[in-house]
Amino acid sequence: MDADSDVALDILITNVVCVFRTRCHLNLRKIALEGANVIYKRDVGKVLMKLRKPRITATIWSSGKIICTGATSEEEAKFGARRLARSLQKLGFQVIFTDFKVVNVLAVCNMPFEIRLPEFTKNNRPHASYEPELHPAVCYRIKSLRATLQIFSTGSITVTVLKRKYTLPTPLDSEQGPT
Question: Pseudo-torsion of CA 60, 61, 65, 68, nearest 10°?
């Protein structure tokens, strides 16, 4: 490949995982009986609820903690979480939408070339680990970004970014400015 030719890489966000709390106890049996698109996992003590728009799956615990997966952007994750909270309100619960956090973002991209994994691992030893007997990809960790890259020999890369103590800014935060 020439050094002059610039190739644009398409990085596609495939999953955003978020967590929020309802600040009330949730009756899982009532959600299972009266809610729509619900799977009650009584043995584990949780309810799975699916929304069609945005396409997310929520894991609901009786403590009021809810984890949403499947969104393709942080905004879509927040919108889906708020829709889920609203549907729980319609079931009769005193839900207050609080402590929203994006905890994980998963993205994929494809390189326009193949990667020789043993050589790549040898050249990037402190950050990269490769165990071909256990997994077909190199695990490359970037501690400063809290990111893990799974690099495959085909050139496919999966990026997982952990987020902690992060909340989406609200429109009011950006309008007020410094006081």
Answer: -20
- For 32-49, the pLDDT digits (tens) are 999 999 999 989 999 999
Hey, how many other C-beta atoms are within 10 angstroms of the C-beta on 98? 11
| pTM flag (> 0.85) | no
| Cβ atoms of 18 and 67 closer than 8 Å | yes
Contact between residue 99 and residue 78 where contact means Cβ atoms under 8 Å apart: no
